[in-house]
Amino acid sequence: MTAALRMIRWDILLQIRGHLYSATAISTLALCLVGYLIQPLDLSPKWLSLLLFTDPAIIGLSFVGAFVLVERGTNTLSALATSPLQGRTYVLGKVVSFSILGTLSGGLVAVVASGGSLKYPVMATSLVLTNVAAIIVGFALVSRASSVNRFITSMSFALAIGVLPLVPYFASDPSPLMLSLVIIPSYSMLTVLEAGFSGSQVSVTEYVISSGYLLLWIIAGWGWSVREYETRLRTYER
Question: Where are the beta strands (DSSP E) in 52-208?
């Protein structure tokens, strides 16, 4: 078994032992309940994508940060810092394990909210993209946080920025100032999630552009996260 697979397996086991799966089940059931209750409203895919957007925000930003802080508090990072484990392997374990959790959770919410009316391959791809992007941001934020309070502050700031694209996303005639907000990746997240619902008005071109933009953020964020582990988390624990 390679180091990457061992790290992924280790992360999943720690998440189970740390009751992260239980916490995810609770948040998923809550979102599913909301999705079920709004079914009679027959909301458009645009509004359903907003509901689905909260799932990677919870798991990607909140849970991954909390998990890394727990590892720091239990001296797990201290042990890893003295091992030959490479930064990219550590980050990969987090990204894959949390992406599996987030994609399954988001998929269930999407099925309930839409009544099963989905473009399943598109939705699955969109959920993977949005979860990976959110997880990488969450990891980078917690790497710079020396305490729980600092992480909460950073996460709150990131979420405040992340909701700004809702203005041009829902505006019928967005101004040039509003359109400037589309560079924030959460706009592309909303777009690709919307495309996964049947009846979506998102064109193939829009989907490809938004997916490509998220991939660029993921690539840049990957390098950022690995650097943050090597220069902050790893050195901090030594």
Answer: none
